Structure formats: C-alpha cells, structure tokens
Amino acid sequence: MASPLHQFEVTPLVPIHIGGVDLSFTNSSAFMVAAVGAAALFFIYGSKGRALVPGRWQSLAELTYEFVAGMVRENVGQEGRKYFPAVLSLFCFILFCNLLGLLPYSFTVTSHIIVTFALAFTAFIGVTLVGIMRHGLHFFSLFVPSGVSPVLLPLLIPIEIVSYLSRPVSLSVRLFANMMAGHTMMKVFASFILPLGVFGIAPFAIDVVLTGFEFGIAIIQAYIFTVLTCLYLHDAVHLH
Amino acid sequence: MPQLNIAMFPTQLFWLAVCFVALYLLVSYVIVPRLGSVLDERQRRIDDNLERATELKAEAETAIAVYEKALNEARSKAQETLREKTAAMQAEAEARSRSLGEKLAAEIKAGEARVAAAKEAAIQGVRGLAAEVAGDLASRLTAGAVDGAKASTAVDSVMGSR
Questions:
Q1: pLDDT confidence tier of residue A108, bands split at 50, 70 and 90
Q2: Burial class (CB in 10 A: 0-12, 13-18, 19+), A109
Q3: pLDDT at residue A188 above 80?
Q4: Nearest 10 degrees: Cα torsion B8, B25, A126, A109
Q5: Which of A4, A121, A144, B26 lies at 20 to 30 Å from B32 by C-alpha?
Q6: Of A100, A11, A124, A26, whose CA–CA distance to B16 is shortest?
Q7: B16–chain A nearest CA distance, Å
Q8: Residue B5: which pLDDT band, with cuts at 50, 70 and 90?
Q9: In angstroms, what separates the C-alpha of A202 from chain B's closest C-alpha?
Q10: What is the ipTM of this complex?
Q11: Cα angle vertex B119, ends B116, B120, to 5°?
C-alpha cells in the first residue's frame, strides 16, 4: 500500500538539465501548466460570446472577475485598480491548482511549501516594492505604531518588523498545510476502505464528505491567500 | 516527506515562474480587457437605459405639467368668459328694463296728457252744451231771444264757482 505522502512525490516527466540544475518538466510542472490552461480556457471561453445577457460560462467567468475586483476595491480602494491583474492571476492560479489537485490521481501543486512560499514571497516583495515606490522612505513609518508612547517604541518596532516579515511565512504555510493535510487525510481514510471489507463503507462515506469539504477549502484558501495579499497591499498603499 | 526534497526545488520554482508569468500576461493582456469591456459595455447600456428612462419620465412630467397648466388656464378663461357674459347680460337686461321703464313712463305721461285733453274737451263740450241749453231754456221761459254770449258767461260763472 502506498504511503499517504506518496501523492506529493514530484517525478520528472521530461528530464531537463541546464547548467547542472535540474529543471525537468515534472508532474508538478504539468499541473501548473494545466492550471494556467484551465484558467485561460475558463475566462476566454467564458467571454467568448461577449453577450449582454451572460450565459452560464460567462456568468461564472464574470462572477469570478467581479469577485476579485470587489475584493481589490474593498480592501485596497481605487488605487488598487492597477494591481488587479496581478491579484486576479494569483487568485486564479491558486484556485485552479487547488481544484485540479482534487481530481483522483492528480498532483496538488499548492501542497508544496516551496511553491506556496514562492508565491507568498513574490507577493510580499511586490507589495513592499509598491509601498517603497509610493512613499519612499516614509514607507518605513509602517513599522511605527501611531498613538503609542515613545517609551514603548523600542519594544514595538521590532515586533512590528517581525510581524511584517512573518507575513510571507504565515501566508505560505497556511495554504501549504491546508492542502497537504486535507489530501493526506483523504488518502489515509481511502487506504482503510478496501482492508475493512464491508465496513469500508464508513471511511468511504467520510471520504465523500471530505471531498466536498476539500472543494470548500480549495476555494476558501485561494480566497484567503488573495484577500490577505490585498490587505497587505492596502497597508503598502495607504500606510495604516 | 516529498515537500522537503530540496533537489526538486529548482524545477518547481522554474516552472512556477514560467507558468505564473504566462498566466499574468494572459490575464493582463487578454482576460481583463475582454471581460472588462464586456462588463463596461453592460454597465454603459444599463446606465444609458436608466438615463433614457429618467429623461422620458422628466418629459412625461413636463407634459403633465403643461397639460395641467393648459387645463387650469382653460378653466380660468372659461370662468372669466362666464363672468364677463353674465355681467354683460345683466347690464343689457338693466338697460332694457330701464329703457322700457322710460318708455312706459313716457307713454303713461302721454296717456295722462291725452286723458287731460279729453277731459278738457269734454268740459268744453259740456260748457257749450250747457250754455246752449241754458240759453234755450231761458228763451223758452222768457219767450224772447237770449244773447248766446250772455248765457255762456252765466254758465261760466256758475261752473267757475264750483
């Protein structure tokens, strides 16, 4: 019986080595490409008709678009408009990676800490750059809490800096842990189904419930990742 | 735990970068303009229709106001005309009744004059007759002619004393 962690194994499909670095096209790469393809198909097929009264696919595409647009508008404000494509890409990438990972025998790209950390770190660096470009050195006033007595500042500023620096970590660990835990749990229950014989119906039922649950988590985690990025963007744009 | 297999980090980072950049370019140059234009177009249509509806409503309200104004004007004009006509008719009626009254008064006066003349004439006739009768009676009683003038004077003196 395969280990519950076997599903997270990255296996090369097309070995590519450039300058001694392994850049092989793996199952992970394949699912990243599939996620991008699915997202592109979803939106392009959804906006194919450009109908005034949208059909089903167009409604879904518009709903997703408006959902992310509303998220940016509410959390960042009017200045957030130019960051909207980046936020939408982030949301779609995570969402489609999460959802594709739910297919049986598939690979979940976002169950790897390196991937979620790279996404979170990119968002973090991007947000910090936006803040510095907008406010210059004044951006660092973000670390000075307002309305606090100066005596406490030597204590509070390091705390603020640590909490700021821990943003990409918490962002990436949250997504990675959720995806990995959910998929491991499903696999653990699934591995009980056959050995238990007739009573395998119980873990099977649990897995059915968990599958529905995992769909919710796939969507919610994509949402949380994106909305937190928006909140960080708000901090960078407005400084508190 | 396969997630901690550092040997597989470069490929994941590389393909993540490739895929994410591809998705970002696709989103910012194809998806957002396409969906954005569809949504903008719809919003524009809705706004246009709302604007047109507001305009039509305003027009309808103006039309109602104009109609009511016209109605009020017509009503007040009708009342004015009615009042004018009533006044004119009253004036005419008064004038007529006044002229009729004058005419009647004149006729009454003329009639009275005629009555007075007739009375005078009658009295004159009676006097003449009385003088004649008196003269005739006197001549018959005295068996002599009586001077007509004398008789007339005598009658006059009798009538005048009455």
A1: very high
A2: buried
A3: yes
A4: -30
A5: A121
A6: A26
A7: 7
A8: confident
A9: 28
A10: 0.90
A11: 85
Nearest to A89 among B5, B18, B20 (CB): B20
Please enumerate, as own/partner, the contacts of A63-69 that have beta carbons within 8 Å and a separation of 24 or more.
A64/A91, A64/A92, A65/B31, A65/B32, A65/B35, A65/B36, A65/B39, A66/B39, A68/A226
Test B37 with A50 for CB contact under 8 angstroms.
Answer: yes
Give whole-number Cα distances, A128 to A59, A114, A145, A239, B21, in Å.
35, 20, 18, 11, 19
A180 touches chain B (CB under 8 A): yes
Give the count of alpha carbons within 13 A of B35, CB side only. 30
**CB-based contact A113 B12, cutoff 8 Å:** no
How far lies B72's CA from each of A123, A145, A193, B60, B123, in Å?
71, 70, 88, 18, 74
Buried b (16+ CB within 10 A) or exposed e, B35-54: beebbeebeeeeeeeeeeee
Min distance B44 CA to chain A CA atoms (Å): 11
Query: B160: helix, coil or strand?
Result: helix
A88/B27 CB distance under 8 A: yes
- Rounded Cα distance between A184 and A176, Å, is 12
Residue A85 contacts B where some CB pair is shorter than 8 Å: yes
- Spell out which residues of chain B touch residue A92, defining contact as CB-CB under 8 Å: 23, 27
Q: Which of B9, B11, B42 sits opposite A24 (nearest CB)?
A: B11
Number of H helices, E strands in chain B: 3, 0
In the block, residue with structure tokens 């991008």: A36
* CB A237, CB A80: distance < 8 Å: yes
**β-strand partners of A17:** A22
More confident residue, A27 or A20: A27
- Closest to A52 (Cβ–Cβ): which among B5, B20, B45? B45
Residues 101-130 of A with CB under 8 A from B: 109, 111-115, 118-119, 122
Chain B positions in Cβ-Cβ contact with residue A10 (cut-off 8 Å): 2, 5, 8, 11-12
